[in-house]
Amino acid sequence: MAERNDRFLRACRQQKVDTTPVWFMRQAGRYLSEYRAVREKAGGFLALCKTPELACQVTIQPVDILGVDAAILFSDILIPLEAMGIPISFGEGEGPKLEPVRSSVDLDKLRVPDPASETRFVLDAVGLVRRELGGRVPLIGFAGAPFTLACYAVEGGTSRTFGQVLNWMYQDPESFCRLLGLMAETVIIYLKAQIEAGAQAVQLFDTWAGVLSRHHYREFVLTATARVFSALKSLGVPMILYVNGSAQFLEEMALTGADVISVDWRVGMDEARERTRGSCALQGNMDPMALYAPAGVIKEQARRIIAHAPQSGHVFNLGHGMLPDVPRENAIALVEMVHELGRKEI
Ligand code: CP3
């Protein structure tokens, strides 16, 4: 029967586990004073991402502090965009800023970077984390999904309306597909390199695909996402697809070839289960805001999610990333609650 070192991978494969595994998106971050101290030492967020020894330390912090069942590499989805030729920066207390790609002329200047030379620090961090974890829990590698990477590249940062990227999609679908194809190529070799360096599962973050209709998801995004998963399938590690705000196209997500679909809190686990018909495992889906509530409320939310999720094939997570000032004791308590509520009868 699975224990902490493999219950996450077993659940991704819909195999029996002793209890429900749990990890959190953005589990390493500002809500931990230990994280803030290492970021300070690195001299900023990007410097932290680019210093393997320090990235390794913050990757492991939540494994030790919270007791989660998986580590996720500390990095950012924007790192490969910089290597493609798009300058990026993170101001203190603001979101990322990028030099926007606005036309097919700009697009022609981008290149598919070689991970071994241009993002070596990511692969070095993967190797270090595997060594430091010593098999305690598996390590998840990740990348932004093609559409979300295109959103950041075109908008030049986070956007409220995604006007620029949607405009491109409507005005010039052909070069928009070329943009998504270039992102897919980049993600394929980037994730392959992470897996070869030691990542034991991978997650694609399609944070912003929820702005699309079902029709446009199917027409533009499904193909690019499926291309990534189909290229990685033979490497044999579980592949997770996260989309925030995805209730309108859960069926399409299940067609991408992902082994695990990560859903947000707006859709019930029972509905997600029905609509994906057991074709993949499910990850999620507590509202990140619930972590500010009293313990009794948190427990009730966890109980409901676990009751509606599959017995085999559920990885507990939040519906989006951990917020920067969440009380850490609530996150620690939630991990314990999930392990207790998720215990399976053997
Ligand atoms: O999950 C983890 O613990 C691994 C590390 C991780 C980070 N970002 C660290 C981070 C992962 C997997 C990401 C993914 C990421 N990055 C996404 C997809 C997931 C999501 O949240 O939707 C996106 C959209 C980004 C881009 C990004 N990075 C934004 C918009 C921001 C600013 C928002 C904010 O919270 O400040 C970041 C910065 C960032 N990435 C931080 C961390 C810990 C905060 C930086 C800091 O220390 O100040």
Account of the 3D structure:
The protein has helices at residues 7-12, 33-42, 45-49, 52-66, 79-84, 104-108, 115-118, 120-133, 146-155, 163-171, 173-197, 214-232, 250-254, 269-276, 295-308, 328-341; strands at residues 71-72, 88-90, 96-98, 139-144, 201-206, 239-243, 260-262, 281-286, 314-318. The chain is an alpha/beta fold. The protein has one domain (7-341): TIM Barrel (Alpha-Beta Barrel). The strands form two sheets. A seven-stranded parallel beta sheet has the order 1-4-5-6-7-8-9. Strand 7 (260-262), helix 14 and strand 8 (281-286) form a beta-alpha-beta unit. The relative contact order is 0.14. Coproporphyrinogen III (CP3) binds next to loops.
How would you briefly describe this protein structure?
The protein is of the alpha/beta class and 346 residues long. The protein has 16 helices and nine strands. The protein has one domain: TIM Barrel (Alpha-Beta Barrel), CATH 3.20.20.210.
Number of β-strand runs: 9
Helix- and strand-based class? Answer: alpha/beta
Cα radius of gyration in angstroms: 19 Å
CATH classification class: Alpha Beta
**Helix run count:** 16
Residue runs with pLDDT of under 50 for 5 or more positions? none
Helix content: 40-55%
Q: How far is the N terminus from the C terminus?
A: 9 Å
As an assembly, this protein is single chain
CATH architecture: Alpha-Beta Barrel
Strand content: 5-15%
Based on CA inertia axes, which overall geometry fits? globular
The chain-level mean pLDDT equals 97
The third-level CATH topology is TIM Barrel
| Main sheet summary | 7 strands, parallel
- One letter per element, helices H and strands E, the order comes to HHHHEHEEHHHEHHHEHEHEHEHEH
User: Which kinds of small molecule does this entry bind, naming each only once?
Assistant: coproporphyrinogen III
Indicate how many domains the architecture comprises: 1
Biggest sheet strand line-up? 1-4-5-6-7-8-9
